[in-house]
């Protein structure tokens, strides 16, 4: 796997750096504000999973110099006891894996209150050696005064991970005001971060297009997100009927409307009983009137398109394993993590032709124009066949592909932390 080291020189020009040779061992402080803020949510977003991976991975790699901190939902910032954080991570992982979606509302609030008390912020000790504050989520980046306050409290240098620039590059797909908020986040990074991580070359390219002079001279690293490889089994109740999986929040940039129209066309051609199923896993988001109308009111799709909302990870893995393919028709992505996760599970992928998807999937998936409904319909029908040559061809390409790992990603995080100490 290739990682990229960058620094933007003040006068422009090349930004490829020679390998860093000095390896000091700074103290590390991981901000897990995102996980605390999501206590009432039984299933994770992609950003939640990234923060969990950082916490687990850094505990394994650098436990002797790792500490945890967070902005508590009450607004207080402080350190968290490592033992309490480890117990919280175990609890959260268990909820994601098996039972969180089945909790009653009362139980969910009771557990949240217990953890909010147990994870009460503690005082920040004075720094006695170089200290790096690491933030893998966008939480509070749109409030620069809060970021400045916690960096000052820690007496630390600050590095953070940029997940995407989509609210700025594609404001039509963001919530109202999303572009303004995201510009504030990027401005905070430009003016306050001492080092920047990006999850893909596509995200770096987008950042460079909009960045100002304050970003120049900062160490920058592209570190693709890792994939956890877990054994999985196909669900038995859907065996005998081919199905496809679409994973992600129902929002405009995910392009669910294309798939719904494709499925309507398929049902018109084949009838309900002979049509493959479409399983949509993800909660309903924003600005989705047309999609919601089709999901709720289109009789032709009833029983053929199934909306699953939130499901535990164990069930999601089983659904993915049995799918004819994962469908990712998005208009924009920062990093195609579901693409990599599907390929790691040996499940074919049909995805929109985006740079981020190609970075994640390489030459393995079938890539299609996200506006070409005819191509999507014909490809889906080809993959639905029990002895599909196109599907077999993609499976045959999989041995030449290997996923990025969290170990690779955290190598880049730790190397950037050491580099920032020298700046």
Task: Describe this entry's structure for a reader.
The model is unreliable at 6-18 (pLDDT under 50). Helix 9 (256-270) packs across helix 14 (373-384). Helix content is 43%, strand content 14%. The protein starts with a strand and ends with a helix. It is an alpha/beta fold and 423 residues long. The chain is globular. The chain has an eight-stranded mixed β-sheet, sandwiched between helices. Strands 11-10-9-12-13-14 form a six-stranded parallel β-sheet, sandwiched between helices. It has helices at 33-37, 46-62, 82-99, 105-118, 144-154, 166-169, 178-192, 201-210, 256-270, 289-297, 313-322, 337-344, 355-361, 373-384, 389-397, 406-422, and strands at 4-7, 27-31, 66-71, 77-80, 131-135, 157-162, 195-198, 219-222, 243-247, 277-281, 305-307, 326-328, 349-352, 366-368.
């Amino acid at each position: 796997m290739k990682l990229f080291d960058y620094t933007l020189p003040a006068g422009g020009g090349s930004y490829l750096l020679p390998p860093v040779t000095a390896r000091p061992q700074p103290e590390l402080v991981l901000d897990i504000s995102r996980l605390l803020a999501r206590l009432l949510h039984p299933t994770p977003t992609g950003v939640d999973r990234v923060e969990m991976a950082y916490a687990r991975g850094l505990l394994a790699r650098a436990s002797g110099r790792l500490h945890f901190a967070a902005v508590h939902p009450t607004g207080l910032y402080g350190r968290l006891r490592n033992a309490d954080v480890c117990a919280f991570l175990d609890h959260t992982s268990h909820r994601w894996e098996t039972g969180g979606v089945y909790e009653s509302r009362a139980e969910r609030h009771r557990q949240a209150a217990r953890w909010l008390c147990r994870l009460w912020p503690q005082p920040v000790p004075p720094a006695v050696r170089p200290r790096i504050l690491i933030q893998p989520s966008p939480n509070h980046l749109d409030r620069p005064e809060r970021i400045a306050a916690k960096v000052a409290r820690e007496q630390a240098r600050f590095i953070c991970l940029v997940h995407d620039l989509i609210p700025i590059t594609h404001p039509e797909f963001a919530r109202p005001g999303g572009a303004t908020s995201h510009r504030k986040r990027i401005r905070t990074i430009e003016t306050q971060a001492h080092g920047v991580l990006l999850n893909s070359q596509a995200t770096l390219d987008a950042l460079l297009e909009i960045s100002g002079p304050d970003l120049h001279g900062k160490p920058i690293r592209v570190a693709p997100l890792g994939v956890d490889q877990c054994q999985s089994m196909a669900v038995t109740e859907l065996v005998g009927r081919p199905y496809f999986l679409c994973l992600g929040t129902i929002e405009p940039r995910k392009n669910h409307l294309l798939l719904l129209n494709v499925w309507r066309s398929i049902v018109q051609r084949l009838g309900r009983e002979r049509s493959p199923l479409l399983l949509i896993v993800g909660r309903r988001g924003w600005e989705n009137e047309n999609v919601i109308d089709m999901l709720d009111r289109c009789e032709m799709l009833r029983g053929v398109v199934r909306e699953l909302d939130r499901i535990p990870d164990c069930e999601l893995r089983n659904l993915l394993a049995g799918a004819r393919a994962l469908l990712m028709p998005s208009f924009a992505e920062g990093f195609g993590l579901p693409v990599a996760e599907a390929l790691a599970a040996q499940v074919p992928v049909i995805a929109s032709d985006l740079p981020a998807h190609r970075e994640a999937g390489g030459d393995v998936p079938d890539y299609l124009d996200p506006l070409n409904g005819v191509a999507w319909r014909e490809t889906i029908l080809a993959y639905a066949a029990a002895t599909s040559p196109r599907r077999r061809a993609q499976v045959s390409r999989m041995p030449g592909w290997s996923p990025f790992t969290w170990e690779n990603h955290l190598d880049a995080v730790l190397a950037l932390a050491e580099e920032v100490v020298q700046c």
